[in-house]
Task: inverse folding
């Protein structure tokens, strides 16, 4: 019995990590980014696996669900881009494997006007990794330095 308990205690930190969103370093994000923008959240929505809107604030995302919560981001400034035109508003999905409810995310962003760096990739302005796209605005100079060095 003691051996089983010790095994469970030893594995607990690994189980906890399974519930955390993927983390990336500033350097990795800046190197992989095709677009470095400044923006702020102006809304939150949720769609099901077929792209149909979901309004139920208790609806959730997670590994066995096909729902996706998206942040509606107003682009305030373009710092770097490979695109000819940057949309004024982007819909950026949170990691659909994370356990969130629509109400939880709406509540977290309803009074959030914080301007942040957006590091995105591709012609469709996608997150670098699922749900990974924000950095604090105070990291702007470092992001631009790393991005420039990586894209010479």
Result:
């Amino acid at each position: 019995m003691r051996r089983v308990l010790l095994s469970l205690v030893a594995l607990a930190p690994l189980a906890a990590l399974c519930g955390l969103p993927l983390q990336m370093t500033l350097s990795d994000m800046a190197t992989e980014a095709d677009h470095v923008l400044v923006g702020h959240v102006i809304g939150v929505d949720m769609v099901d696996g077929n792209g149909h809107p979901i309004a139920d604030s208790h609806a959730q995302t997670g590994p066995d669900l096909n729902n996706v919560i998206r942040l509606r981001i107003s682009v305030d400034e373009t710092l770097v881009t490979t695109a000819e035109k940057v949309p004024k508003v982007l819909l950026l999905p949170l990691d659909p494997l994370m356990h969130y409810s629509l109400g939880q995310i709406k509540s977290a962003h309803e009074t959030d006007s914080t301007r942040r760096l957006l590091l995105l990739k591709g012609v469709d302005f996608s997150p670098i990794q699922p749900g990974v796209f924000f950095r604090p605005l105070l990291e702007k100079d470092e992001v631009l330095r790393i991005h420039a060095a990586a894209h010479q």
Observations:
- Strands lie at 35-47, 68-80, 89-93, 116-121, 126-127, 134-136.
